[in-house]
Design a protein that fits this description.
With about 450 residues, the chain is of the alpha/beta class. Helices cover about 40% and strands about 10% of the residues. The relative contact order is 0.10.
Amino acid sequence: MSQLALCNYTNNDNNNNNDNNSEDSSQLPTIYRCRAPIASLDCMEEFSAGSALSALTERSGEGGITKEQLLLSGLTHSTPSAPLQLAKQTTATPGLRYRNLGKSGLRVSNIGLGTWPTFSPNVTEEQAEQIIVLAVESGINVFDLSEAHSGTRAEVELGRILARRGWKRTCYIVTTKIYWSTRSEERGLSRKHIIESVKASLVRLQLSYIDVVIVHKADPMCPMEEVVRAMHYVISQGWAMYWGTARWSPVEVMEAYTNCRQFNCVTPIVEQTEYHMFCREKTELYMPELYNKIGVGLMAWSPISMGLSQGKEEGSMQLFSRSSFRNKYSSFSWTEDETAAANKDGYNWMKERIQPEETRRQSERIRELSAVAEKLGCTLSQLAIAWCLKNESVQCLLLGASTVVQLYDSIQSLQLVPKLNTNMIAEIERILENKPSRPPMVSTLALR
């Protein structure tokens, strides 16, 4: 009997004991007085319909199940004329799960929509709305916005779509970023810039609050106390529910958490970081430690390069993001402007930075990975997404799509995750040869 089943048995047994006044629940063995862990909530949706149906069947006997009973139990039938078919009111995509973001109570889908390619200049507003609708109908409830990539257009257009569709505010989660660059009028993360940025985002989104405000890159020139106090003020005013970080180093995240504890401010709940087959160290080594110690969750981005598909052999390395070949995570400095570099001449600057020998090795690995994907009956993009989802530390994986077909194909990767068994993961690791590991501990006594 599973732990969850034991807990359900305990609840029923306690109810019977209370009704009969026969014995106190405290006399039960310890194993029968447990509580279901939070992790077991992921499977509640899978058998809730079945358990409700069983309960209704027992109560109804041979008289059948009435429509009123179905509505009260949260179930519905498909068509009156057809044989009775039960289904949940909300359609669920196979493999889609909802998890707590960090150690907060906010429940997010395990895949989200990164809107950089969705609101790019070559995508019309009608096409963008179709992508958003497909995401919502598939069960995705996270929409991530970034002023650094698509400017303010993403917030304006998403706000129009949400207002036009009239979805309940409780059914979707909007995350937007506080961004600063060397060319902006307000450099850094001053209290002034943070508050003005959040208020402007609210106006563009036509929302009364933002679910999660993300601070895009740390500011070494601004005191961390000022940053955390400003974020605490934003949440206290009701303009945001939570806050998090993006592209911060583990040391910077820990510093922010320490300042929050010192000054009694709301702590961050999530860090957004790059994660794919060629960028693994931060996600696999340091983010689980931050989650266990201070409750900061992980929202990963760039499993494949923002909507790009696999090209010919010489261009296949573009499948992954432009920073695919950086083994280390890095923070921005005052002189860096990634967006300008990316828009300058496409991805040619990345090819110039990579050595020919490294390019050849990566191309060979991608060809071998393509063979593995063909064996599984999927595309290389779907394999890359499923591989990221296999990591339990990733609570939400942000996917980019510029067409409905791209998003649909990416969503199908959820069904591929169970196929990545131990042998298949071992085969992928053999091809990649880049599994991160911590350096061995060096004793200071041995240096003497």
